[in-house]
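Project outcomes to date are best conveyed with an example. Our students and postdoctoral researchers have been running inverse folding experiments weekly, and each run begins with a structure described purely in tokens. The record below, which covers 333 residues, was selected by the lab manager from last quarter's runs and is presented without edits.
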């Protein structure tokens, strides 16, 4: 028996998210082996870096910099005040340097940085273009930061809800055993035959409601919405929570299943927001959640540690809503 605390679980989630990225990277490596020099992958420190980053709440000096950002122009200062960010960027730079070295414009692009490099080449000599090396760095940074804590926080909610609802956990495991079995690993193709598991993952995201206020947006022109006039330049905050937790929409108990047990998509399911600026990582996130969740429940049963009270299902509010710290027992099945 192993005891995992909420914090350790979080670390585990980040580690697995990194692992999935590495698997993807290694897969690419295999396909393009001839073009990559041999050598270890530069990424395993990534999980630790993000971990440190989010545990250290901003120091008072960092808060000062937030208000007076011009101080960041002082040479050498940003790296001293934000060591984790600096180390993270160093890792991104290493990754991109490797890309540049092994990039072959004659071949189809291996990934997003390759496709971006093509555009940087085309845009050479055009200072107006946004395709430049600095934007490439920042784009990679954006994708990592937007994609990791979101997915791992959702994955911290999943086992909590499973130990609070053991009957649901058993039902998922039953479906896993029937469709996948205990021998092989889950694959994306299994999803279509696992409506109950799909429904549970959707419910985890709906209930977790990890980005209750979405991302702020600003109107680029005057608009009228349902009779309300909104002038250009207005900051708009979408209350995703009001949709995800709207009791008139989410009747119990079959939120994502019809009477025949088929999975049903719901319009009010919008943890990734909606519209043109909907989360661009949604398809990747869905894959990660499905594979990680089914893998875990295929191998383990989770429960409240003996003698402990049921943990709370209330979130801790911040930029992202995380579950309150909790402990669980993970027993190999
Ligand atoms: C469970 C996981 C995730 C959740 C709940 C989530 C949620 C969101 C939300 C609510 C937004 C704001 C959309 C808006 O502006 O209205 C967003 C934007 C974004 N997300 Fe995600 N996300 C997740 C995973 C990912 C992943 C894995 C990636 C990248 C690999 C990613 C990349 C992005 C990016 C780049 C944006 C900005 C898109 C834009 O402004 O056009 N996200 N996400
Ligand atoms: C978002 O909507 C919910 C439910 O309608 C409400 O309780 C909450 O106060 C709203 N949040 C904000 C910041 O207005």
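After processing, the design step wrote out the following sequence:
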């Amino acid at each position: 028996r192993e005891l995992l605390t909420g914090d350790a679980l979080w670390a585990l989630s980040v580690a697995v998210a990194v692992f999935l990225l590495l698997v993807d990277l290694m897969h690419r490596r295999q396909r393009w082996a001839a073009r990559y020099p041999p050598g270890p992958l530069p990424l395993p420190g990534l999980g630790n870096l993000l971990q440190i980053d989010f545990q250290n709440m901003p120091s008072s000096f960092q808060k000062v910099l937030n208000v007076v950002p011009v101080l960041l122009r002082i040479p050498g200062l940003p790296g001293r005040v934000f060591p984790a960010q600096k180390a993270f960027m160093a890792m991104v730079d290493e990754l991109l340097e490797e890309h540049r070295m092994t990039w072959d414009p004659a071949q189809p692009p291996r990934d997003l940085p390759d496709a971006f490099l093509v555009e940087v080449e085309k845009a050479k000599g055009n200072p107006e273009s946004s395709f430049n090396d600095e934007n490439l760095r920042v784009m990679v940074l954006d994708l990592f930061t937007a994609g990791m804590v979101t997915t791992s926080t959702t994955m911290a909610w999943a086992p909590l809800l499973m130990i609070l609802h053991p009957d649901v956990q058993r039902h998922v495991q039953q479906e896993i055993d029937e469709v996948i079995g205990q021998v092989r690993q889950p694959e994306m193709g299994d999803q279509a035959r696992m409506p109950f598991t799909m429904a549970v993952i959707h419910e985890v995201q709906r209930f977790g409601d990890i980005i209750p206020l979405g991302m702020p947006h600003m109107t680029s022109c005057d608009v009228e919405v349902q009779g309300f006039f909104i002038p250009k330049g207005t900051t708009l905050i979408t209350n995703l929570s009001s949709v995800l937790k709207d009791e008139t929409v989410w009747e119990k108990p079959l939120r994502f299943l019809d009477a025949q047990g088929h999975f049903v998509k719901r319009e009010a399911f919008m943890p990734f927001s909606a519209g043109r600026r909907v989360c661009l990582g949604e398809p990747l996130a869905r894959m990660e959640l499905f594979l990680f969740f089914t893998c875990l429940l295929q191998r383990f049963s989770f429960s409240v540690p003996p003698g402990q009270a049921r943990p709370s299902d209330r979130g801790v509010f911040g930029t992202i809503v995380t579950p309150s710290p909790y402990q669980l027992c993970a027993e190999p099945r």
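The pocket of 2-acetamido-2-deoxy-beta-D-glucopyranose (ligand 2) is lined by residues 213, 239, 241-242 (CB under 6 Å). The beta strands are 2-5, 217-218, 223-225, 228-230, 235-236, 300-303, 315-316, 322-323, 327-332. The training component of this project remains on track.
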